[in-house]
Specification:
The chain has seven helices and eleven strands. It is an alpha+beta fold and 241 residues long. It has a four-stranded antiparallel sheet. Strands 4-3-8 form a three-stranded mixed sheet, with no helix packed on it. It is globular and about 60 Å long.
């Protein structure tokens, strides 16, 4: 679907079953393919670059259970895990390990993308969350972070990691029986198109605008469904009486 058809059919898609979730996917898909906003004639897009061209993957901390704790303590650093990757990264239920086990690169930084690299669920492997303004923390061995090294809009990259383009690449790459695993190279070799930083910011702004509209539509839909259910219950009581 191109951007013209998308905007012309926005309301129709939204009203279909599961339509709002589909809308969110379409927004991200069009965005990272460079088809959500009209390209500036002055903007230069880098075609078919790999993630390794703009950053690197860092694997998490390996530790023995005897070295870990569920409580804070002097000299201990909290570790993020796959369970902390929700819509945003949360810092609940953390494991703590001695700082001596952690390499300098394994301390998370603002804008890092946390990735689940190993899971019993094929649906969860590859799941991502952007780390924003974190406390001093690291991450466990079943995870990795993608760290941007070249000038790139962190919000744009975080958006890419939520897109169908990324998810499709991960689904094709994950391997294993029982436990599904990704390798660093599986992620670093994912190809995509990258606009200039200025264009990235413009795309992110458009995605935020459309996502906010999806939220409004979803809220209205929930209200309509709730009202319909209330009316149905009232009518049922009246008919029974």
């Amino acid at each position: 679907m191109d951007s013209n058809n998308f905007f012309e059919n926005f309301e129709t898609i939204a009203n279909a079953p599961g339509g709002i979730s589909r809308l969110r996917e379409l927004i991200l898909d069009l965005a990272v393919r460079g088809r959500l906003v009209e390209r500036s004639t002055e903007d230069v897009w880098r075609e078919e670059i790999q993630l390794r061209d703009i950053g690197k993957m860092i694997r998490g901390v390996t530790y023995a259970k005897a070295d870990s704790s569920k409580s804070e303590g002097e000299g201990l650093v909290p570790l993020l895990g796959a369970a902390n990757i929700q819509r945003d990264i949360n810092f609940d239920g953390l494991t703590y390990v001695p700082e001596s086990l952690i390499k300098p690169d394994q301390i998370v930084r603002d804008g890092d993308v946390l990735i689940c690299m190993s899971s019993g669920s094929k649906h969860l492997v590859g799941k991502t969350g952007s780390i924003l303004r974190p406390p001093r923390a690291s991450f466990g061995a079943f995870c990795a972070v993608f760290r941007i090294l070249n000038p790139t809009d962190h919000e744009y990259i975080a958006m890419f990691f939520k897109s169908p383009v990324y998810r499709n690449a991960i689904s094709a790459a994950s391997r294993g029986i029982g436990i599904n695993n990704l390798r660093v190279g599986d992620v670093e070799s994912i190809t995509f198109v990258l606009p200039s930083i200025e264009e990235q910011s413009r795309i992110v702004a458009k995605v935020d605008e459309l996502t906010s509209l999806c939220d409004d539509l979803e809220g209205a839909q929930i209200q309509r469904d709730s009202l319909a259910e209330s009316i149905a219950k009232t009518m049922t009581r009246i008919l029974i009486e």
